[in-house]
Amino acid sequence: MIFDQEYILFEILDVFYLDQSFKKKTDTERNFDAISFRFKSETKISSGKQEIELCDNSICYFPSGLSYTRVSQKDELIVVHFKAFNYRSNNLEYFFPREPGKYADLFKQLLKCWESKEISYKSDCAAIFNKIFAQFYRDNTSLCKNKKISDGVLYMQKNCMKQDFSVADAAKQSFMSETYFRKLFKKEHGISPKKHVIYTRIKHAEALILTNYYTISEIAEMCGYSDYNHFSTEFKKITGVSPSRFKYKYEKNEQ
Question: What fold characterizes domain 2-140?
Answer without folding.
Answer: Jelly Rolls (2.60.120)
